[in-house]
Amino acid sequence: MQWAPLRQAALGKCPVCRPDYMICRQRVITVAVHGTAGCERFSRAAPTHEKERKHTEVVPFINVYERSMCKVRETLVDIYQEYPDEVEYIFKPSCLPLMRCAGCCSDENFECVPTEWYNVTMQILRMKPHMSQLYVEKTFQQHSRCECRQKKEIKGKQENHCEPCTETERRKHLFVQDPQTCKCSCKNTDSRCKTKQLELNERTCRRGKKPRADQAVCSPLFC
Predict the structure, then answer these.
(1) Nearest-CA neighbor of 140 among 118, 124, 125?
(2) Spatial distance between the Cα atoms of 33 and 29, rounded to a whole number of angstroms
(3) CATH homologous superfamily for 162-209?
(4) CA atoms within 13 A on the CB side of 96
(5) Tell me, what DSSP letter sits at residue 69?
(6) C-alpha–C-alpha distance, residues 143 and 141, integer Å
(7) Contact at 8 Å (CB) between 126 and 133?
(8) Helix 36-45 with 3-13: angle, nearest 10 deg
């Protein structure tokens, strides 16, 4: 079999057969025997440079960042998550595509939360094992706007970072605390106590009668 004439004929019928392919000779022989059908068979079987390049293509940072942002997106939500009291039933489908807030925030102390939402009613099949089944209408919440807000547990910790002024709940009302410095002070002032001929114990914030010389200063006598 002469190579040059077959090669020229095959290149005309099958453009994907180029001289830089190692298997080009085999393609030429196949095209010569089977015609353009052989060319199509080789085109499907062997990957081209363009297909190989697509598999190794790197997604740019800006695309990755935009796709991961906090926004409304379709999310599959388990029905039992929305209706935990109906676990005795089987639902078809068991999860639903709902528009929900999801994504990443620039600060790990923040989370993606909804700021606007609305309700949507969907018809689903509800079944009970070995019993009848029926179509029911269930209401689900969908989100329409999102934003990044500080996580509740982080916010709570920041608001209550001070140690309590007293260990007993009964005496809490006697103190005021500066949230910035955590300094505790008494609600009642010493001057106010003196007008009632009482003395303020600044350690306990209790008001008591002025002690005699033979009494302790912290005598817990209430007015």
Answers:
(1) 118
(2) 6
(3) Vascular endothelial growth factor, heparin-binding domain (2.10.160.10)
(4) 22
(5) B
(6) 7
(7) yes
(8) 70
Question: Over the range 103-133, which residues count as b (16 or more CB within 10 Å of their CB) and which as e?
Answer: eebeeeebbbbbeebeeeeeeeebeeeeeee
The rounded Cα 84 to chain-centroid distance in angstroms is 20
Task: Report the CATH fold assignment for 63-153.
Answer: Cystine Knot Cytokines, subunit B (2.10.90)
The pTM of the full predicted model, rounded to 2 decimals, is 0.47
Q: Which residues contact 48 (CB under 8 A, 6 or more apart)?
A: 16
Summarised one tens digit per residue, pLDDT across range 109-168 is 999 999 999 999 999 999 998 888 999 999 999 999 999 999 987 655 555 667 778 766
Ranges of each domain in the chain: 3-55, 63-153, 162-209
Whether 76 shows a pLDDT value over 70: the answer reads yes
